[in-house]
């Protein structure tokens, strides 16, 4: 078994595509296909099934993928470590962040870091879904990810740096705005404007209603708290969002009712692949975010 074969197999599984794996490895697609075929012949098992233009791991392929992942990721760590020693890549940080945190919290942290380390290049990838960020963390494509706490962090370490209450937001003249007490049954009766279903906040909201057997009427699904708030201000419906995306200026055109007791606090923090090598610059940035390593 050759390392190149294992790399071709791993990245094909990671992307679900021989062509994308070839781009990652900077080789031809046929070369990747031959690498995987050679592995199948050597091991005597089928590793992939073709699905239209893509591919899917077989049960045997999933087993090998777990072994390959730890090997390829360790190799990436070795390369990063010695690139730092050789002063090649030590002055760059690459990470991905959830759009809410990226908009409302990250700019001040980046500003502070750049004042301290102006020579370090910072690459920030904006991602809509936490699942995409966590996938990039596990694949070693980024140094770390910033996500909400309502996720599965298997194979990763998660360091929570902030917590936010959850709020029901309505137009000022909405009937619920005048209520002293708002229940989940009251909320379920209203037209709801929520994030798309893959969003971690939306998943938590759906789970809470479903656990209590409450049908809730979602009339608009969209991305971005600012867009959602605009629809609420227009009186099209009500929403449930976290305090990270609310400010004092929202208090005038909207009514904000605390509902943390129903949904729990939403945390945000840093996700790191277990055993991931971190450059000194990355550690410094994490310290600014509030992560003590």
Offer a concise description of the structure.
The protein is of the alpha/beta class and 293 residues long.
Strand order within the widest beta sheet:
4-3-5-12-6
The CATH architecture of the largest domain can be given as: 3-Layer(aba) Sandwich
Structural class: alpha/beta
Low-pLDDT runs: none
Instruction: Please report the total strand number as a whole number.
Output: 12
As for the CATH topology of the largest domain, it is D-Maltodextrin-Binding Protein, domain 2
Number of separate structural domains: 3
Mean pLDDT value: 87
Computed over alpha carbons, the radius of gyration is: 23 Å
| CATH fourth-tier homologous superfamily of the largest domain | Periplasmic binding protein-like II
Globally, the shape reads: globular
Quote the distance from N terminus to C terminus. 37 Å
Q: For the report, how would you describe the main beta sheet?
A: 5 strands, mixed
Helix content bin: 40-55%
Total helices: the number is 12
């Amino acid at each position: 078994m050759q390392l190149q074969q294992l790399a071709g197999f791993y990245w094909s599984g990671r992307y679900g595509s021989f062509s994308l794996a070839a781009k990652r490895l900077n080789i031809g697609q046929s070369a990747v296909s031959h690498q995987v075929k050679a592995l199948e012949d050597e091991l005597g098992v089928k590793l992939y099934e073709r699905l239209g233009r893509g591919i899917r791991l077989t049960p045997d392929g999933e087993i090998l993928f777990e072994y390959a992942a730890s090997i390829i990721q360790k190799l990436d760590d070795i390369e990063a470590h010695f690139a730092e020693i050789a002063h090649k890549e030590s002055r760059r940080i690459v990470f991905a962040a959830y759009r809410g945190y990226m908009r409302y919290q990250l700019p001040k942290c980046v500003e502070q870091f750049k004042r301290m380390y102006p020579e370090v290049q910072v690459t920030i990838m904006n991602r809509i879904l936490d699942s995409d960020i966590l996938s990039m963390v596990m694949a070693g494509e980024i140094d770390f990810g910033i996500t909400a706490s309502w996720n599965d962090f298997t194979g990763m370490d998660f360091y929570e740096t902030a917590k936010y209450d959850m709020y029901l937001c309505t137009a000022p003249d909405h009937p619920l705005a005048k209520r002293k007490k708002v229940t989940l049954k009251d909320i379920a009766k209203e037209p709801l404007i929520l994030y798309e279903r893959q969003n971690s906040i939306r998943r938590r909201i759906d789970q809470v209603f479903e656990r209590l057997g409450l049908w809730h009427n979602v009339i608009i699904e969209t991305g971005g708290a600012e867009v959602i708030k605009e629809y609420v201000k227009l009186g099209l419906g009500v929403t449930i969002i976290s305090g990270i995306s609310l400010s004092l200026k929202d208090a005038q055109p909207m009514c904000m009712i605390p509902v943390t007791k129903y949904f729990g606090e939403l945390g945000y923090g840093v996700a790191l692949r277990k055993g991931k090598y971190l450059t000194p610059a990355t550690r410094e940035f994490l310290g600014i975010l509030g992560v003590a390593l």
